[in-house]
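Supplementary Methods S3. Input chains for the assembly prediction are listed below.
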Amino acid sequence: MTVSDLVRRGVSVFDQLEVLLPLVNKPIQYVGGELNATLKDWDAVQVRWVLMYPDAYEVGAPNQGVQILYEVINERDDALAERTYAIWPDLEALMREANVPQFTVDGHRPVGDFDIFGLSFSTELGYTNMLSALSLANIPLLAADRDDSHPIVVAGGHAAFNPEPIADFIDAAVLGDGEEAVLLITDITRDWKQAGCPGGRAGLLFELAKTGVIYVPALYEVEYLEDGRIQRVTPTAPEVPWRVRKHTLMDLDSWPYPKQPLVPLAETVHERMSVEIFRGCTRGCRFCQAGMITRPVRERSITGIAAMVEDGLKKTGYEEVGLLSLSSADHSEIGDIARNLADRYEGSQTALSLPSTRVDAFNVDLANELSRNGRRSGLTFAPEGGSERMRKVINKQVTEEDLIRTVTTAYSAGWRQVKLYFMCGLPTETDEDVLQIAQLARDVIKAGREATGSRDIKCTVSIGGFVPKPHTPFQWAAQLDHETTDSRLAKLRDAIRSDRNYGKAIGIRYHDGKPGIVEGLLSRGDRRVGAVILAAWQDGARFDGWSEHFSYDRWMGAAQRAFAGQVVDVNWYTTRERMKTEVLPWDHLDSGLDSDWLWEDWQAALDEVAIDDCRWTPCFDCGVCDQMDTEIQVGPTGVTDLPMPKVPDHAPVAERNAQLPN
Amino acid sequence: MARQAPVRDVAPTVQRLRLRYAKRGRLRFSSHRDFQRALERALRRAEIPMAFSAGFSPHPKVSYANSAPTGVASEAEYVEIGVTERCDPGAVQAALDEALPPGLDIVEVVEAHTPDFVQRLEASIWQIELPGLGVTEVEVAAQKLMGQGEVTVERLTKNGVRSFDARGPVISLVVESGPECAILRAVVRHATPSVRPDDVLTALRQVADLVPPAPPKVTRLAQGPLDPDGATVGDPFTPDRAPLAAAKT
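Predicted structure tokens for the full assembly:
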């Protein structure tokens, strides 16, 4: 029996934490107590999960993925799930001083006491926060150093489609939808524990790897060529599959989660309830990793959506509902959904929002419907590319006429501000392509002034730096260096500001190109990048998604030390174009997309050839449905009108007969 | 083209209700804004027929009185709401308490029959637990502070560092013994700027070098009209209860 067996596990550390809380900023984020949170008896279950969104509570708490998995696990009798979030440096310092471990916000139990530590990575910039959490939890940073007393560390989320840069720190990774995956992992872990933990930690990881849908990096060996490229990635045992498949959840109507959304006390980035109206997107924008890795499209039905909205509002009291997806205006029943919900909640002080950036008049009609009796402040459209040529390269099928027609409709309907999203640094891009953004913005203002006869028309241009991502046609592309990105943006800014007639009506927002280079290194990196992450974290890197905490120089210093004496460097990973024959670090991870199809789409991009959406044109063989045995699930269901809910005559707290004296 | 605020029928306020709530345990770390959001959502969940303001973005009619600082627990916080249908105060209390997370608890609801409620909140009783300090040393420090005519303290506010007298508004300081701590009970008159428990502690440090080895735990026990003789505060709901009592007899 080891010392750790003698110590009772799962005991709250709140008493130790409580004395530190008066000394830190926004202490409410660490105390939990959210409405609809679940706290289960530690000893009543066999499998205990701790789920982390590796960013601050205000960003992590509203995350839908974590909320869904939290509920799916907690609904089981044999398992529990609690949540933890990244801890700000002020409390981290106090916790280290007072020896308080990383804790969950539900039971304030030490993270190191759980069986499984699941992390959801929406972005690679959360990697250093994972290291902080492991270190605060007294879990060895390197998977190889862990023993049977430590949790199994599992990565999920979009960034887990290339978990190679964090391969040394995690025990396993899950690709794709998490609902069924967490149930599978729970089953395997429970059976393994019931059997007396055969083979210890390695035995459990082996069982997980054998399924073919859970990636255990330690069971794969990576060999390199002399020039730095990968030679091959090989499983180290015959039972371990050569490729690991992603998970795809079908029939969204039978998974109406979250059924009871969490309502945080602390202020968060999304002060609303979210209902996911469909998953996946086949628009085929070539830069978009989300659209590539979440195929095929699976819709929730109009009745399923209405039930989730009604039920969720009752349980949360939120005053706003967001209808979420990758492109919400594309739902096959969206017109009926918008009209029905707008009717149902008219006059109830409940706002409906549809985050959509689609450039067409129908999108404006939807926005009008949902803002019937509210304020019409701003609408957002995403042409993404400044020039017609650029939009063909990225497969964003929007013409300048489309955009002008759309904004004219919007301004005429009373919208006063239009926001336009673009990217800079796309493959084959020139200065001229980016300067076209200025021309487009001028045309937008001109159209708006003509449509309304008013000069009170505004347009904001928002520009993000493009980072090539794994499992997209641009995975082979060279990333633009940050100097050129910055100089192009400066030219664009000057072009807009120097315009006497329109300059004042156009706002411009952008960031410098440096953070994009670090994101690029982490996105397309291999296992050798792990040493850079560790060095940067040891040098103080935390909260890299926050500009006030991010330091480019710290990352470059860490890369220089970690890559010393090697043939690879930051440029090799970022600004280098890859050839078709190169083994990519994520080739053994199967998103369903056919590698040849991706390459053909990359060539089509260079030839400026567009490709249609398979929802309304024949299949173009991207490979996903065949490979994953899935299918497109879209409506319409034929239901166009929802029954109006019964409104009670009196509020439940009203006096039945007002006899009390006035 | 500036859009006009849509003209819509705004249901009139037919009744005003005064709520006393408590902020307990770990939820004492909620800020005033955190409570506002939680209350407005609870009002919706409990289906209280709230009155709304008119205009572009209507908001429910809720007035907040002076709230306890973040990190300070309270047994006596006050809020007034306006409703469009007459409600039974007891039913509102139960429904709202049920809809709020445990730790934000609705203690009592009365119908408003009198004006100038906020003016009635003249003073507070604060209970300050000082872990690791003995009764005697705190008593000595308290007497020293009460012996001063004026003690200027500084506090960082949104508008920079402010200096003000933290002694004048202190009506009384009583020290009791608690489990492994001394308990200081302070009756403090509400002034501008308000003297908060941490200002009293700053003053004690300045005049008597009293420094608690661990963060103190503070609870507001009461708010209400100041009884200058007894150095205590009364129940601010008393005048609202009076008409009811009168009607019943």
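The domain at 272-374+612-647 of chain A is CATH 3.30.750.210 (Transcription Regulator spoIIAA). The longest strand of chain A covers residues 417-424.
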